[in-house]
Amino acid sequence: MKILIKNGIVVTDEYKKRQNVYIEDEIITKVKENYEAEADVVLDAEGAFILPGLVDAHCHLRDPGYEYKEDIVSGTRSAAMGGFTSVACMANTNPVADNKTVIRYIIDKANREGLVHVFPIGAMTKGLKGEELSEIGEMKEAGIVGVSDDGYSVANSSVMKKVMLYANMFDLPVICHCEDLNLAEDGVMNEGALSTEMGLRGISKASEEIMIARDILLSKRLNVPVHICHVSTAVGVEIIRNAKKNGVKVTAETCPHYFTLTEKACEGYNTLAKVNPPLRNEEDVEAIIQGLCDGTIDIIATDHAPHHIDEKNVEFDKAANGLVGFETALPLSYTALVKAGHMSMMELVRKMSTKPAEILKIDKGRLIEGKKADITIFDPNVDYTIDIETFASKSKNSPFHGFPVSGKVVVTIVNGRIVVKDGKLLD
Question: Which residue in the list 98, 303, 374, 379 is annotated as catalytic?
Fold first, then answer.
């Protein structure tokens, strides 16, 4: 199929200009001002941004084992609706993705039934127990793009050192969930006046910050790269900033809920706002935004974490952690960061497309001639309120229902195939 995208503004991490884009046989063959050619489909992108397809470096597809929450089919449909053309899924499945068999299952199912590119992340340790290294080499051969025990820190520093050294042998990023569980002490929200007022056990910010520092120190001593997940605190940002100034090979991510919400979203015992790490204070939100703007935080990930309604519609301390993020990440980020004047659209593209692909070392996140046609068309002029009932995800656990945003994904193209058009999935 030949596709011509006209009248839009192409935005990459390097430039922003009005250009037409021509796609032929799954490949971007021309990116040029006023370019015209015969096409099977002509898309008018007047007033919209034409972006390299978004890349999510951190999500949960729940497949295998928890398909009642999400599966590869529904998860990739949700990703496509959010403008993501490539997603990297975490290993906390059932069975755990700690071996080549599970990795191959994920890749094969995604190739057969998925709507976007799926890149599995393998477990650091067997069963996510933090004790014995997974068969990282075999999983790399099967197709993983990184290793992580996301949901858990590897508490034993000796084991973590071995993970870093072994993963580095296979040129795989080490992706760290930073949480000292002993210090977290079974807390359920941010520790402070509000947790006390609500009568809930709080989670100290130090439980995250200590493990960020530990993993950065190991990275420095071993001279191997490390990637820090879902940074949520001002001190965490400062630790990473100082490490980068000292030449440590560290990259970091945050998620839209950490720069758009505070712990106040938990008021009324709102379990939809229960996440891990927990929502923090206003000063932490400000620090996260500053960290994104000055490059301390490299990327924005969704941490898309679907849960069945029965796992959220319970007492706060018993509710599951996490929220669905594919379909809200881009409009939230555009509204809170670009429209608010904190960063340019070019910088946002780098945070949500180019740099995540670089960290995962995948050939994605570029809108240039000769590359596969993974493209997102985003109209920044549409103002609306988020409606969870419209989500393509099986799960609707989002605290952003009714949240006003600007910008909507109108077209998603994966491998030269239009999968979302006029803001709707094409079956």
Answer: 303
